[in-house]
Design brief:
Layout: E1 2-3, H1 9-15, H2 21-27, E2 33-37, E3 44-49, E4 53-58, H3 63-79, E5 84-87, H4 90-99, E6 102-112, H5 114-119, E7 129-132, H6 135-139, H7 146-153, H8 156-162, E8 165-170, E9 173-183, E10 187-194, H9 203-217, E11 221-223, E12 225-227, H10 231-239, E13 242-253
Parallel strand pairs: 4-5, 10-11
Antiparallel strand pairs: 1-2, 2-3, 3-4, 5-13, 6-12, 6-13, 7-8, 8-9, 9-10
GO molecular function: acyltransferase activity, transferring groups other than amino-acyl groups
InterPro entries: Acyl_CoA_acyltransferase, GNAT_acetyltra_YdfB-like, GNAT_dom
Domain N-acetyltransferase: 128-255
Length: 255
């Protein structure tokens, strides 16, 4: 297994057409990460973030490459580090399930229909204070605080410089948040939370609309992913123009 040099990331981007947003975040040097390959022809690839997210793609018959993945997994177990492996390939799924002691979680990624989004009836946000997230709001967040941004963005500062985030406030209290858990030059994946006491008022839609509008105005494609059994998220996404779900798998260590 070799480390792909940063100056070859553009080659990897040309090879990968569909992948989780964090993969493109690494390839665009927006978050810290490493690209590993089975050989210099880059037929088998493992893209990882410093926080312990991995995505495997390419030739699944490369036994040496698979052995290296097993070693990385075992090292993460021994050191108590995070190991979350993403795969959207059936043959890779089979190899992972044979070789690693992991739990499988099925997820959906959705296609975004911009025409459907623009033609829908928008929620009335005039009664709410909707604002862009800043340092002060992060310090008084509902859910997405410093620990969240340190894990997924390397730091709060990196998120504020490169990420997207909006919140809804009731006076000084944050009651709903929508932020980019990952963002690349071309994609932004949204993460949403609403205060339990304020659910059912359309706040998630309002904050998502702000997020999507920002993406469209900056030529960024919004992305929506969720677990296959998260029916509330699937329903909300469909109202916002996210449809045509495609399944993929993530694998986490069994503790």
């Amino acid at each position: 297994m070799i480390t792909v040099p940063n100056e070859h990331f553009y080659i990897i981007k040309e090879k990968i057409k569909e992948a989780p947003t964090f993969v493109f975040s690494v390839l665009d040097n927006i978050i810290k990460g490493t690209v590993l390959a089975g050989s210099t022809n880059y037929e088998s690839l493992l893209i990882k973030t410093d926080s312990g997210l991995y995505y495997v793609t390419g030739l699944s018959s490369d036994e040496s490459f698979l052995e290296n993945i097993v070693s990385i997994y075992e090292e993460s177990v021994n050191q108590g580090n995070r190991f979350t492996l993403f795969s959207n390939d059936v043959t890779w799924n089979q190899e992972i399930e044979k070789s690693l002691k992991v739990k499988k979680i099925q997820r959906y990624c959705f296609s975004f229909n911009v025409a459907s989004y623009k033609n829908r009836k928008r929620y009335d946000s005039s009664k709410f204070n909707v604002t862009k997230i800043n340092q002060e709001l992060i310090e008084n967040c509902l859910e997405f605080g410093k620990q969240y941004y340190d894990e997924y963005w390397d730091s709060t500062e990196d998120f504020l410089q490169n990420g997207i985030g909006f919140c809804v406030k009731d006076k000084e209290r944050i009651i709903s948040e929508g932020v980019s858990i990952f963002k690349s030059n071309n994609y932004a994946e949204i993460d949403i939370i609403t205060d339990l006491n304020y659910r059912g008022k359309g706040l998630a839609c309002i904050v998502a609309e702000q997020f999507i509008d920002y993406c469209l105005s900056h030529n960024i494609q919004p992305r929506w992913d969720c677990d296959v059994d998260n029916f509330a998220s699937i329903s909300l996404g469909s109202k916002l123009g996210f449809n045509d779900p495609k399944a993929y798998a993530i694998y986490v260590k069994i503790s």
